[in-house]
Amino acid sequence: MHWSLEGRKLGRTLIALASAGAVMLGATVALADDDDHDRGSGPRAEAVTIDTNLVVYTPPVRLKSPARRATATVILLTGSDGLLDLSAGPPADPQNEEGTITESTGNFLIRSADLFLGKGLNVMMADGCPGFCTTGILLGQRLQNDSHESNLQGFINAATARWGKPVWIVGTSNGSVSAVRAAGALTGIKGVILTSSRTDFSGTSNPAGNLAIFNDFVANINVPALVMWHKHDACGVSTPANSLALFNAIPSTNKQSRVIDGGHSVATDNCGAFSEHGYAGVEKEAVDKIADFIKDNP
User: Is 4 a member of any domain?
Assistant: First the structure.
């Protein structure tokens, strides 16, 4: 059984515009930088999408002013089924040659891409298509599938080759399961950020086995690690108590936890993208904490 977390449809995303501060035309996010920071010199932060064939796209985005100088890179792993569906363009562009996101637009990380750019962070938004388009990335596949592991390493390598900046894996909800695997088993990453992490595998085909594998990866995380959760996250598979337990289990000598409070849920689903689980209304605070941790670990 695949337990789906995080809202995916664009219709839901429109609800979040007031709280997220983003402008969305179709499925294209209009990005704005953070004017409170020195933009410096050198290459500007850039946002791209990437599919499981490791094809990198530069989706059409707008900045109201130039992005800050890039100091690091974040690879964003969405929740739910992990699909951005870059292959499914609109009727006028059936091949979606620009790599526009057509699914998971409401996901916390995806809708906050502009905030990461504003912090001088290159953004790579990773798709589960075409490799896992049929079913999405199932939880067991996030933990055990060889192709998924190859995809994750490919994303890391592609980000390094494109920008040459320290690479951070950032996962939310189900995406944190993949981020734990990357941090515990793969090479080339500077650190890992785990937000609203799924830590309960009940309802999957092999709950005990999946949990054991997950714990093995956690036990091998030695890179800088930030675990963040919302104080009032009511999603049953990512409780605050379990997020704290996850933090305590990570052996890295350089780890921190952050708890977010406030915001305003507009979701009826406690695991939805626009609930406390998805940091509705406190996106900027959440990204600030992530960016600060990255900045403190150059």
Answer: no
Whether the CB-CB separation of 70 and 162 falls below 8 Å is answered with no
pLDDT tens sequence across 158-182: 999 999 999 999 999 999 999 999 9
Structural domain including 148 reads 10-295
Residue 1 lies in a domain: no
180/228 Cα distance (integer angstroms): 13
* Residues in the chain, pLDDT under 70: 1-41, 60-66, 87-98
The whole model's pTM is what?
Answer: 0.85
